[in-house]
TrEMBL record:
Cofactor: FMN
Protein name, UniProt field: Uncharacterized protein
Disordered, as annotated region: 138-163
Organism: Exophiala sideris
Record family assignment: Belongs to the flavoredoxin family.
PANTHER family linked to this entry: FLAVIN REDUCTASE LIKE DOMAIN-CONTAINING PROTEIN, FLAVOPROTEIN OXYGENASE
Top-level taxonomy: Eukaryota, Fungi, Dikarya, Ascomycota, Pezizomycotina
Top-rank taxon, per record: Eukaryota
InterPro entries: Split_barrel_FMN-bd
Length: 163
């Protein structure tokens, strides 16, 4: 299937069907107008929220080299034979997901893991972490730096109050 997906990236003339070129069969979607790939183990329907063209190369002749699409999923499709024994998760060995890393590079995802996010109070209570001095320090933005990513003063004060 990956070869057909890659083949669908051909710069074909307007009016020529991607479906015909790829060999995929289409299936109707339920929440969006475009069809989905019928034989896919997993597929999503979604609504485009934002599209950003990426023009970061110096040799691009003014043309974007890629795009970032932010999509809100509206429906998921999973083939029954791709589910685990308890039918509550997709079996990665059957799904065999791919990731496009950029350009012509791909990777296969073979395992996942969960990493719980820490809570501020628990981290502060663990004195071996030594985080308290960081909350007590006054952070000044550097001249000419974009400080929009720094926490607001109210957030810092709230964190100090929790400490």
């Amino acid at each position: 299937m990956v070869e057909a997906v890659n083949g669908s990236s051909l710069d074909i003339p307007y009016g020529v069907s991607d479906w015909d070129m790829s060999g995929f069969q289409s299936a109707l979607s339920t929440t969006v107008k475009p069809h989905r790939v019928k034989d896919a183990i997993f597929s999503m329907e979604g609504k485009l929220l934002e599209m950003k063209e990426l023009n970061y190369s110096e040799d691009n002749d003014g043309k974007p080299h890629g795009a970032l699409a932010i999509i809100q999923a509206t429906r998921f499709w999973v083939r029954a034979d791709a589910l685990n024994g308890t039918k509550d998760e997709v079996d990665l060995s059957k799904l065999r997901p791919l990731v496009q890393l950029g350009g012509i590079s791909y990777a296969r995802v073979r395992e996942t893991f969960e990493l719980p996010r820490p809570g501020l109070q628990a981290e502060l209570d663990d004195e071996s972490r030594g985080l308290r001095p960081f909350l007590d320090a006054k952070v000044e933005p550097q001249t000419g730096s974009d400080s929009s990513g720094l926490p607001h003063e109210e957030t810092v004060e709230l964190a100090k109050a929790v400490a």
